[in-house]
Amino acid sequence: MINRMKRRFFHHFIDLLYPNLCLICNESLMSTENQLCLSCFSKMPKTNYHLLQDNPVEKRFWGKVPVERATSFLFFQKGSDFQKLIHELKYRGNKEVGVTMGKFAAADLLDSDDFKSIDLIVPVPLHEKKEAKRGYNQSEMICNGIAEILGMPVVTDNLYRTAENTTQTRKSVFERYENTQGIFGLKNPAEFEGKHILIVDDVLTTGSTVEACIQALLQAKNTRISVFTLAIAT
Fold first, then answer.
1. What is the domain range of residue 11?
2. Does residue 94 sit in the same domain as residue 168?
3. Looking at the 3D structure of the chain, how many domains does it have?
4. Is the Cβ–Cβ distance between 121 and 155 less than 8 Å?
5. Band of the pLDDT at 6, cuts 50, 70, 90?
């Protein structure tokens, strides 16, 4: 009884020092909530593209690379609440944001039969220098959340980045395309032969980075590729 009271007091003390707050509205989270309160999550701008074939995400790849299905979980606009989450994930070391949002998105993917045939999940790789600096790959965190719900393996040691390209920010569509050409490779194509692969990234803009990943993945024979991103820029 005394030990239980001590633990309760300790957790209460920690909550006072480091309150568990919603990343959007800064209100206290309930014990069943993680990163976002239910109210803020309900206001997130979902695309529901996983239920729509020939959606705007899939059209980004038409005439470029073969894609089975493609979807983004949310719409992304600069200055939006969702941008706060991306900044937490990419620049403030909060990798749990990626896992949590991956779980939320995967719960929606369960509504689509097209994504139930996925064999494995692959994050868009970071260059080893950038990953070492950040401490993790944000796309891998999203994958981990998706995998926890869908029950599919995450493979991080086959697709790799061959070069550290400059940031895509403020580049034109053509500059983004040029900046990503030939920057990914596949260590063991045989590992992915005959598999349905879900490639995962954080935000889709022109799609040039994901396209370059797909070009590398196509070294594996009879591979089907689908795409998931946490958001699509509008």
1. 1-42
2. yes
3. 2
4. yes
5. very low
